Amino acid sequence: MPDPIVVAEGLHKSFGDTHALRGLNLSVPRGTVCGVLGPNGAGKTTAVRILATLSDPDAGHARIAGYDVVREAGKVRARIGLAGQYAAVDEQLSGRGNLRMFGRLSHLSRREAHRRADELLERFGLMDAADRQVAGYSGGMRRRLDLITSLILRPEVLFLDEPTTGLDPRSRGEIWDNVRELVADGTTVLLTTQYLDEADQLADDIAVVDHGQVIATGTPDELKSTIGDRLDVTLEDPAAMPAAMTVLNTLTGTDPTTTGADRLSVALPGGGLRLADIVRELDRAGVAAADVSLRRPTLDEVFLRLTDRKESVR
Amino acid sequence: MTALTSPLGRLRWTLLDGLTLVGRELGRLRQEPGQIIAALVFPVIMVVLFGYVFGSAIQVPDGGDYREYLMPGLFAMVTFPAWLGVMTRMAGDASRGVMDRFRSMPMARLAVPFGQTGADLLTGLLMLAIMVGTGLLVGWQPHRGLIPTAQAFLLMIVLRYALSWAGVYVGLAVKNDQVADAMVPLGLPFTMLSNAFVPTDGMPGWLRFLSDWNPVSALTAASRELFGNPGAPSGNVAWPLAHPVTAVLLWSAALLVIFVPLSLRAYMRRGR
User: Fold this and answer.
1) Average model confidence (pLDDT) for chain B?
2) pLDDT band at residue B217, thresholds of 50, 70 and 90?
3) Model pLDDT, residue B219
4) Taking CB atoms and an 8 Å cutoff, what residues of chain A touch B101?
5) How would residue B170 be classed by pLDDT, with cut points 50, 70 and 90?
6) Beta-carbon contacts below 8 Å between A and B
7) With 90 as the cut, is the pLDDT of residue B149 above it?
8) Residue A86: what pLDDT?
9) Pick from B61, B80, B72: which is nearest to B199 by CA?
10) Smallest Cβ distance to B97: which of A84, A107, A153?
11) What is the structure's pLDDT at A213?
């Protein structure tokens, strides 16, 4: 495995009485996409702000490409790009005007800043809107402009803080395509999101964050394996529900959840149970099933299981 | 490309990045010509409104021409909103994440407040020039020669620059463009509560006290004195009106001493 380009060790951060981060650890290998997944208030944005030098940790440290985010912030800034939840561009300027300004502020020469602006507009399909004021852009276009503004200096690490929150599915798909292209170019991406399908689509590795700590890491597949496959059963007659519950409970050792008047779902223990056995047992108990299917859990199910909150703890 | 590491390189980039941000404000004006038109129309409206509508009923203390009396007040009136404009732009950048982008970029850190105040200075000069043009059209003129005239305009510019730093700090402190927008209408009564349009002698005691000590009054009195326009206070007057030039300089120095360090600290802080 190559050296990690993003490393966070034991990050702590409090705002008054709120402990946003409580010992967060993170390690992202160069050239990969790390999805940081967590409910609202889990500490995702705080972690990104520290890694992007916008905020100092109370304890712990973090390095980007070997440079400390507090002591060598300048060197870190020259190597990162940040695209946030807001479209952090000047709404009164045109798209081209924004790119040129941020290019100049990145200390490109005037000519180079102009060339880079055109190159990015062309490549990410915003050339048609280049000279229009950003205030008139759609949400998706703004987000895309925000994204490409953070690419002016060809960052080694790109932080995307909830890049598609509030976007329609089509715009979201376009952002995803853009991110995939960047990764193909070798950019390392750290992406926070509350959309599990987004992490599933883009991330090589996922870090699930809750209460300011990483509570699970792994590839999407590995995370799904931790809670086992799911069995979904649709009954012909809802009246057979109690019988079906009993059969599935006996077979799996866990209580099934009802997902509709005539549907139920249960987690399967690892290995040993075959679909044929399940169908036979249901048959024997006189339960007529319209459909029985075995599937991988969704990341949502993994996520809900992992972040299952004991409300009394808070 | 020189790095940001040497002090000289840092100074150079603070200047260059600051200029880029000044260019940004000019670019905004180009995108919104409405703002330029508004800036052109505003002085005309003020001169007509105060000079002719109110002026027809207001007596200048020593019998001078009301429009001669009025123009120094209007110069002060275009000077003081400097802090409001800068505050709104800083708060807008902070609330929309533009400030975070600046902070996460390898640009000179101090360029943002210096660029913003520098840009305001340029727009301020433009507005002042338009106001001067309008004043000359309606018969106002400086009477005391080149140097006092230049001194009067210099005072306006110095005070404007100092005020714009107050705007930087307040904008960084409120961080929310809606709050900032809501504060803008406070500017008008602040300017009206002064000697800019009417003498303060006729006001009730406590209001007169506030008006006399309002820096708007000091700037107005200073320009009246330096331009040789009517309205010099007589009799028992408050200290800032008796020594208006010193008062304006003191106000400017106080604003800079307080708000430059506060603003820089607020901008550099990496708390949240």
Assistant:
1) 89
2) very high
3) 96
4) 82, 84, 88-89, 102, 149-150
5) very high
6) 87
7) yes
8) 67
9) B61
10) A84
11) 92
CA distance readout (Å), A219 to A204, A297, B54: 6, 14, 75
Q: How far is residue A17's CA from residue A15's CA, in Å, rounded to a whole number?
A: 6
Distance CA A304, CA A313 (A): 17
Q: How far is CA B78 from CA A2, B22, B39, B255, in A?
A: 61, 20, 10, 18
* Cβ contact, residue pair B24, A150, below 8 Å: no
Q: Is the pLDDT reported for residue A41 higher than 80?
A: yes
Q: Summarize the confidence of residues A78-107 as an average pLDDT.
A: 90
Nearest to B101 among A15, A88, A92 (CB): A88
* Minimum CA–CA partner of B89 in chain A: A90
Mutate to test the interface with B, among A107, A109, A162 (most CBs of B within 10 A): A107
Q: pLDDT (tens digit, 9 = 90+) per residue, A192-201?
A: 988 888 888 8
* Band of residue A254 on the pLDDT scale cut at 50, 70, 90: confident
Other Cβ atoms closer than 10 A to B192: 15
User: What are the backbone dihedrals phi and psi of residue A24, each rounded to the nearest 5 degrees, phi first?
Assistant: -80, 130
d(C-alpha B74, C-alpha B58), whole Å: 16
What would the two tokens of residue B187 be?
């500017």
